[in-house]
Amino acid sequence: MAALTPISRKPMSLVLPTVAAAGGFFGLFIGTSNGSGTLGVLIGALMAVAGAALYIFVLKNENLGKWLTIALYGALGFWFGGIAAAIIGLLYGWFIHWFSYWLYEGRYRARLLPYLTPKQVLWHYTFRVICGAIFTFLITPILVVMPLSFNAQDFFTFTPEMLRLDPAGYSLKHYQDFFTNNEWQRSFKNSLIIAPIATVISVSLGTLAAIGLSQSHVPGRRAIMAIMISPMIVPLIISATGMFFFYSQIGNWMEGTLGLNKTFVGYVKVVLAHAVLGIPFVIITVTATLVGFDRSLTRAAANMGANPVTTFFRVQMPLILPGVISGGLFAFITSFDEVVVVLFVGSASQKTLPWQMFTGLREQISPTILAVATILVGISILLLATVEMLRRRSERLRGMSPT
User: Fold this and answer.
1) Alpha-carbon span 201 to 395, nearest angstrom
2) Within-domain flag for 209
3) Domain end among 111, 138, 159
């Protein structure tokens, strides 16, 4: 493929320092993993500058420079670290080559408005770099856990076999332990029992509260709203302490007066506690959905003779359903991932999956935690994708988005 037509070639005083900064950033990760971040920054910056100068002044052929760079860095990576390092080298070589020409040929302005000043262009890309750095900072711990869950050894670190991409270094034994170990399965079943019931309670009460608080004639609705969402704001350890004293009295009454089984009462206390934590999420999402709700529809239904219950289920509920489901998903995630409150309110019979993971870290140091964490990440991704689809559907139903 022929090289793209240059827009305006930039001076090397801009290109080389910027390429050096990018190379040093990559070198920081490689050097840190090998014990010297400073050395990694220096080597990465020098290699990036040397490569950019080679492409622009010596080869003067973009395609030739691209394939030579990819092959060179891939070979260096394989020489020093095997297949895994070779893959990193290939990606690094491709990026440095692309980035050098992207700057030198002025391609970074191709998709921008032509009247933007240099400062505006700089801020445009600086903002994206900052966002990318924040995203990397947040997502890297998750990305590290996932491959570690396939470790063939009982370690929390990458073994030499894993770094060489040797099949012998990978195994599904931690997943097998999760699905066959009675302790893990009991805690998993407890989470599957507690979280859905707590979610149903949260959705029911939170939806009704949001509809009531959305009415302008309700006195003190701002203060009531602040109180209702306070479990999201108050430190969880304080909420857990208060729930411990409150639900212990309720539990004693249910056991002593009603004669209910102690285990059943324990489940009731944990479910109610998790429902309290989930209600604020439902209130916020449903309230946000009700902002664009056309109240003339409910008035029209009342004029046609529909009672409030029929109006709610036939008119209002279908339109706010995406917000209700979104709030329910957040409530479910909150209950499924919660560990502090269940430690205070529950007992060994109500040990949930996060509680078992906490125990595994403190007492057993079980690598099965990595497999469980990967499963939970997968579930969270599916739930968040569902929330996003429901949000877009809600915008379309309210006329806020054309597609």
Assistant:
1) 26
2) yes
3) 111
What digits encode the pLDDT tens for the residues 177-192?
Answer: 888 888 889 999 999 9
Alpha-carbon distance of 64 to 62, in angstroms, equals 6
Among residues 111, 142, 159, the one where a domain terminates is 111
- In the beta sheet, which residues pair with residue 151? 170
- C-beta separation of 335 from 198 below 8 A: yes
Query: What's residue 183's pLDDT?
Result: 87
User: Which of 189, 163, 206 has its CA nearest to residue 326?
Assistant: 206
Q: What is the average per-residue pLDDT within 158-183?
A: 84
CB atoms within 10 A of CB 49: 20
Rounded to 5°, the CA angle 353-355-360 comes to: 95
| Percent of the chain as helix, strand, coil, to the nearest 5 | 80, 0, 20
Q: Do 266 and 372 sit in the same domain of this protein?
A: yes
- Considering the domain architecture, whether residues 248 and 388 belong to the same structural domain is answered as yes
Which residues have CB under 8 Å from 176's CB, separation 6+?
none
* CA pseudo-torsion sign 122, 124, 126, 129: negative
pLDDT at 32 over 80: no
Structural tokens at position 50: 């040397």
Count of structural domains within the chain:
2
Cα distances from 137 to residues 45, 61, 133, 142, in angstroms, run 22, 36, 6, 10
> Residue 6 falls within a domain, yes or no?
no
Cα–Cα dist 44/49, whole Å: 9
